[in-house]
């Protein structure tokens, strides 16, 4: 499979050599590197990406789920252009119309987000959520689930992808640091919980309720392993009872599970929610929202709350939760995001239906070739998990799957024009339709017939 990949992508190979002289590993996000070198894209259009060698791909990575209207959607282009032309600037540096328009839209789709603040990425949104939880509860530890990702900073870059031999027992996972340079303090400070195991979670939370400010979770792990419904409602009850906040990180699931995210599907109301990806229409954004009294901690009470060297009486600043950012609520990005939501309001059912068609087609082909597998996921994201297991309900179940075979399959698929990063999940967009599903299934059939 590798050979065909290399044969078709000589210009990507050459580019990678140059890129490695400029950026460590030739990439500017570690996740974007893979062996022997990543494909370098040159152009996108709708559901398609085109690489330096002119190969065409149906894109199922969609920038890690961010592009739910595909590449270069005309409605987004138009919205950006109109915003810039009519308002004449890229950035006001003051409050403006679109902050409130987007805010109202979020409030209507996510009723738990009574008030919101903007950030520039999902990472910044979860970081702010933690500060808000600390301030609100007066406690200073966060609990997160094994295998869940919330951004690359020290408080949460723990046990996202741990080596199981070091990770401790399933019912009480250890907190494992996953990067050089992380202060070991955080392994002591961040509590790791087992996903979809309410009994074990209850034991840990009850024991440490006086230290833990909040449980942060991806309602759907990695965007594709759903929380069990009873687990989710149980966890909501338990956290309420123990005085621990519940934070839904819906950076991936927001707008993708349904317009109202996982919370509308599960009918569970978190205290805080973070959004990102889709709501930026392809541009960097994050939103945090939740209960009014939690968000209101960051409301400045007077100009003296703002860090400004010209102010002589800054003492009240410590009573206000600090949140700032030059680009927060960027007008051009919010225009792109609002245009995205408008299109999705009309077309999300199409995306969900096409996702089901593709999943079913893939399952049928694996069955035809006698390979046990599951399509794991809800809404518009799923993963192809080659496994004999009956149920994939957490990180440890997933580790029992056949990653080697899946990887080989992915290189065959790349060589036949189906793009996702090897081992990554599939994200769907409004621009995927019957034609793309058909081509994808043909490629699968070709790959599987060679693999068997
Ligand atoms: N939370 C989740 C659930 C995510 O999937 C991601 C990004 N993959 C983040 C947070 C971080 O978002 P960003 O990359 O925009 O900082």
UniProtKB/TrEMBL annotation:
Known EC number: 5.4.3.8
Keywords: Isomerase, Pyridoxal phosphate
Name under which the protein is recorded: Glutamate-1-semialdehyde 2,1-aminomutase
Record-linked InterPro entries: Aminotrans_3 (IPR005814), Aminotrans_3_PPA_site (IPR049704), PyrdxlP-dep_Trfase (IPR015424), PyrdxlP-dep_Trfase_major (IPR015421), PyrdxlP-dep_Trfase_small (IPR015422)
EC category: isomerase
Gene Ontology molecular function, alphabetical: glutamate-1-semialdehyde 2,1-aminomutase activity
The species this protein was found in: Ammoniphilus resinae
Cofactor: pyridoxal 5'-phosphate
Family in the record: Belongs to the class-III pyridoxal-phosphate-dependent aminotransferase family.
Cross-referenced Gene3D superfamilies: Aspartate Aminotransferase, domain 1, Type I PLP-dependent aspartate aminotransferase-like (Major domain)
Coiled coil: none
